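Fill in residues.
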């Protein structure tokens, strides 16, 4: 894989660019790879709008030198973008069936990192996720861009077996314990950075 000069990071549901993992990645890029273009946007609640903004925002990026990292719902988006744009992807406990899993979250929720901020998750967003699942993942080619999936058996939110089944064709790091947030994220950074090959 060629070196990565452009890196996109996608946070999870109700999360933000202030998550521990995104701040750690931002710090690594800033301190050790200052020439790398870093983009970690606050994603809109609408999945359709999120994907649209991400495709538009990376339109001028050199696909051969770009990569995406995504966590949870952001991991689902990262897998979609990887197929669509050809970017290698690092998937951190990636959501596999978000339309099914997020159906019960229709309504208003506080943001994890700033409870004063609210996330309005509408019923139509579930349908938007279902469409994305079908368009990007069910129809995805057997051989796509390289992926590295970090999957924790201790994930209390998502089923590790589904994650493994979905992404087994790529490189997988299956962790015996840990949790959904990957509280031990630093332990996997060397492997992630080796995969990304930041310029």
């Amino acid at each position: 894989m060629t070196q990565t000069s452009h890196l996109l990071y996608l946070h999870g549901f109700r999360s933000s660019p202030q998550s521990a993992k995104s701040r750690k990645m931002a710090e690594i890029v800033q301190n050790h790879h200052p020439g790398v273009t870093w983009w970690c946007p606050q994603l809109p609640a609408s999945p359709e709008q999120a994907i649209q903004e991400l495709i538009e925002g990376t339109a001028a990026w050199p696909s051969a030198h770009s990569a995406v990292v995504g966590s949870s719902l952001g991991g689902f988006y990262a897998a979609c973008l990887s197929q669509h744009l050809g970017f290698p992807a690092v998937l951190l406990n990636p959501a596999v069936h978000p339309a099914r899993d997020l159906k019960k979250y229709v309504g208003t929720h506080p943001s994890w990192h700033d409870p004063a901020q609210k996330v309005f998750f509408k019923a139509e967003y579930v349908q938007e996720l279902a469409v994305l699942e079908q368009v990007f993942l069910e129809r995805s080619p057997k051989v796509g861009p390289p992926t590295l999936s970090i999957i924790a058996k201790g994930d209390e939110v998502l089923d590790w077996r589904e994650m493994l089944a979905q992404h087994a064709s790529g490189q997988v790091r299956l962790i015996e314990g840990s949790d959904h947030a990957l509280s031990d994220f630093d332990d996997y950074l060397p492997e992630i950075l080796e995969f990304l090959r930041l310029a």
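The first strand starts at residue 6 and ends at 10.
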